[in-house]
Amino acid sequence: xxxxxxxxxxxxxxxxxxxxxxxxxxxxxxxxxxxxxxxxxxxxxxxxxxxxxxxxxxxxxxxxxxxxxxxxxxxxxxxxxxxxxxxxxxxxxxxxxxxxxxxxxxxxxxxxxxxxxxxxxxxxxxxxxxxxxxx
Length: 135
Fold this sequence. Notes:
Elements: H1 7-21, E1 34-38, E2 42-48, E3 57-62, E4 65-72, E5 91-98, E6 109-113, E7 116-122
Antiparallel strand pairs: 1-2, 2-7, 3-4, 4-5, 6-7
């Protein structure tokens, strides 16, 4: 395999990556990227966790804060190999999300499939929306 390097472009990418990882602005993306969806009965949190095994993820619900943490561990590089390009980061991660509704902690479920962590948080009956009839 041959990888062609454009030296000015490579240096620009290195500097951009360094600046991006060290940015103090709110623009810097958090890892893992998450999506949150909600309906009347539940909240569903989906997080991108490619290469992370279920035993390397910890999910904690404390009061109204859901915390997802874990580690993407290094993969095995073949012996006597020279790494030409290394863009995949080995890292610890943690994201915390404050929930607007009470959830039934005993019914929370989570699974990892195809690099996505899906957490289903059923709302308590008391926190579900109700239509009130006007008399």
